[in-house]
Amino acid sequence: MSYLKALNIQKFYGSRKILSNLSFTVEKGEVVIIEGPSGAGKTTLLNIISGIDLPDGGRVLLDGMNITRMSEDERARVRLKKIGIIFQSSALIEDLNVMENIALPLKLAGRKWKERVFDLLKYFGIEHLKYSYPESLSGGEKQRVEIARALANEPEILIADEPTSNLDDDNARNLVALLRKINRETGTSIIIATHDVRLKNLEGKRYLLKEGRLYER
Known about the structure:
Strand order of the largest sheet: 6-7-8-3-9-10
Structural class: alpha/beta
Low-confidence stretches: none
Oligomer: single chain
Strand content: 25-35%
CATH architecture: 3-Layer(aba) Sandwich
């Protein structure tokens, strides 16, 4: 049974159809790369499958649950437990230091946080940054903190929206290696939306999003 199913997804902005009867599945432990140019609807699709937004047609099944029938609060609770998200632009909270940013989803879930946060700081090699604030971090450092925070609650799926868009070549290569490591060592499913050719060496199932439709490559 697929862990995530998007079935006949449609989305309109005004009279413009962004997504057209789009379907795909994600298995546990699978890496899925959704490619397409800017404006193709990749972010819209990620927002729908994570429950941030609702489709105008179709449904999303996550671990057997139809999240498109849930209330906003119910979707937020499911997202907190089962989905980690890396946003295209930095979503770190500027008033919180690195340790506090990573601990936030754990605190929201009512979980003990200290041991898990220190494990993540060590795993990502950022222990020395625990008391630093986002404004003092490099692009690569911010990305590691964001991934650590996204993984804090040990989600089944990690969703990344253009994760290399603000990274130089070295940090982009490091990110690809890191995503491979996370998938291999934790079995977390990873869904990436990108138009960055530097991700061409990331192994996984590839789709092209074009004119509202999804084509397997």
